[in-house]
Amino acid sequence: MKKILLFAIALIATLHTRITFAQTHDEMFNSVFKQEKRAYFSDNMHLKAAEFDNFWTLYNSFEKDRTDIGQQRLDLLKVYVEKYQTMSNEDADMFMKKWLAVDKKEDALRIKYYKKMKKSLGAKVAAHFLQLDDYIQTAIKFEILDELPFIGEFTH
Question: Is the pTM of this model over 0.85?
Answer without folding.
Answer: no
